[in-house]
Design a protein that fits this description.
Elements lengths: L18 E2 L7 E11 L4 H11 L13 E15 L2 E20 L7 H37 L7 H32 L1 H16 L1
Parallel strand pairs: 1-3, 2-4
Antiparallel strand pairs: 3-4
């Protein structure tokens, strides 16, 4: 069987801002897809193309077959009732852009190479979709935690609580993403062989 291109880690770009401004108090999510073309007529050439044309991680300069860019944002408003300051509305937004490869020779590929590509590209898409889902879950968690913050006599101190809560949720998000990548990387070969066997069985 031709060599199977290895799945590289994702690119994670994270920006979080919480500002004091009115909002509707609901988590807003937005997901988009981008594609880049790869050539190659063999598995090894495909691997080279993914290494050459895949999205680049700015921190390391290395390229990856798939990537998910994540951007958090949002707003928090504060209201004073009596001698206490409360969180009025809290809105957290998360935008994800999933970058995936598109093989320009798929239609003319041999049956075996086409099977390998379909299996690999589907797994890359599933992997990146999961990164986007992790981000959405943490955005919802953050919004709930911000709304549940106890009031304070000083709005500046309440805003400091908002900042600490935001930082803690973002840190938990980063750890969950890294943990997911570690598990996926460890199980990659076994998962790909299982998926290939499943597709081969269905093709009979």
């Amino acid at each position: 069987m031709p060599a199977i291109p290895m799945l590289r880690p994702l690119v994670l770009l994270l920006s979080m801002t919480v500002i004091a401004a009115p909002s509707q108090g609901e988590t807003i999510t937005n997901k988009t897809f981008s594609y880049y073309s790869v050539g190659g007529r063999t598995a090894s050439e495909l691997d080279e193309e993914l290494n050459k044309r895949g999205p680049q991680m700015k921190a390391t300069g290395s390229r990856h077959p798939g990537a998910t860019k994540i951007r958090f944002g949002g707003s928090v408003s504060y209201v004073r009732r009596g001698n206490k300051c409360y969180v009025g509305n809290a809105k957290v937004t998360v935008s994800t852009n999933i970058i995936l490869p598109r093989w320009k020779y798929r239609r003319s590929a041999s049956k075996s190479l086409g099977l390998i590509w379909d299996t690999l590209s589907a797994d890359i898409k599933r992997h990146e979709e999961r990164h986007a889902e992790i981000a959405r879950n943490h955005a919802r968690d953050l919004e709930r935690e911000l709304k549940a913050l106890r009031p304070d006599r000083d709005c500046a101190k309440l805003q400091a609580k908002v900042d600490r809560t935001t930082a803690a949720v973002v840190e938990a998000h980063d750890k969950d993403q890294a943990r997911f990548d570690r598990v996926e990387s460890y199980n990659f070969n076994e998962r790909m062989l299982r998926l290939l066997a499943y597709r081969l069985d269905r093709a009979k």
